[in-house]
Amino acid sequence: MSKTNKAKLQQQKKGKKTTNTTTAKKELTSEEYIQQGEKYASEYHFDKALTSFEKALKLDSSNTLVMDTIGEILIENGDIEKAKSYFLKSIQTDPEDSPSKYMNLGQLVGGDDALKCYRKGIEIMERDLKKTIKEIGPKYNDLEHIPRPLKSTVDGNDEDIIYESDEDDPIIQLKQQLCSALCSISELYLTDQCFDDDAEDQCESNLKRAITYSPNSPEPYSLMASMKISQVKNQEAIEYLNKSYQLWENSDIDDRPEFDYRFNISLLFIELKENRTAVDILEQLVNEQDNIAELWYTLGVVYNNLTEPLSAQECLITAKELLKIAAPQGRDEELEQLTNTLLKKVQIDVSKLSPEEIEAFNNASNDDNVEEDLEEIEGEEMDE
How far apart are CA 264 and CA 283, in angstroms? Predict the structure, then answer.
């Protein structure tokens, strides 16, 4: 369930009073079923949550927030067609009350229909933003309502910069939602709508708007980099991609963008031959999750690009071992072939190294292991 819909459902509950009945078996009210559904959803019992919200909707058949919530749960359950029907029903019931139904539906339909959904969602968000700013009146200062950067460490002293939560500021929340929505439109112009005559102009203009709303968000900069790559403007792409990366490079692990997003960013750096930056990202990812063969293979590719065959060999051997472990659940024959082919090439490169080069690599690896152990011990002492 999205945070926006959850907050609005909670507001609904505050605005309505529940009535007690004296029947032998008390029938729950719509609000109580909503509360029950939220509890199940927070515990990831989506089937039970779905049942509760459906019962709530039977008692309050025009509640579009419940319809939207049911749609979101159906997406989690993989029932896409049924989810679409609930979002469409919500739009038919009240087309102006919430942007989330349009954003969710847009992700499910694609193409021109998705564009229409996203644009309508953005229209509602911008209307809500203007209304919220108007309510503040002449005291409103836009500089006080800019989405903040991610928490990060600075000057190498491991002291966090402390930011107040953006979740308490409705204007910042709307700006972040608008940034995300405009990025969704831009992604369409990079994919489904890429053959439209004005695709490049639309993509760039929407990303610039996204940056205006949330200048500290990494996503519009990385999408701008993707667009520049498609235009074969690689130097501009590198500048935008570096800007995106700098916004989360030193962020706390809990505040970093999603794992898949960061992996895709590393692939863009590889495409732009910025292999050292790609290594930094990929090493961070394998430290977080070390059981993904594709991740180790990609890291091996980058070390090979950097002419570091010993590091490449270690990564590719790890990838090969993980693929062997995963084989009983289903082989990835293409990745196996890619790994084996590159490993053979890298092993030939390793065979050409001098004993001194191999010894230096082993010593450096041992030093890194000692440093990691010390950091782990220090972390445990701090926890105590």
Answer: 14
CA distance linking residue 194 with residue 4, whole number of Å = 31
- Structure tokens of 284? 């961070």
Q: Quick check: 67 and 87 in contact, CB under 8 A?
A: yes
d(CA 115, CA 189): 9
Tell me the angle at which helices 293-305 and 309-326 cross, rounded to the nearest 10 degrees: 160
Torsion of the alpha carbons at 161, 162, 167 and 171, rounded to the nearest 10: -70
Distance CA 129, CA 138 (A): 15
pLDDT digits (tens, 9 = 90+) for 296-317: 999 999 999 999 999 999 999 9
What do you get for the CA distance between the two ends of the chain, in Å? Answer: 36
Q: Scanning the structure block, which residue is given the tokens 């009983």?
A: 328
Q: In angstroms, rounded to a whole number, what is the distance separating the alpha carbons of residues 253 and 190?
A: 29
Beta bridge partners of 154: 159
The model's pLDDT over 116-149, given as tens digits with 9 standing for 90+, comes to 999 999 999 999 999 999 998 888 888 788 887 7
CB-facing half-sphere around the CA of 382: CA atoms within 13 A: 7
Contacts of 301 (CB under 8 A, 6+ apart): 270, 312, 342
d(CA 276, CA 111) in angstroms, rounded, equals: 37
Cα–Cα distance measured from residue 360 to residue 311, given in angstroms and rounded to the nearest whole number: 12
Q: What SS3 class is residue 24?
A: coil
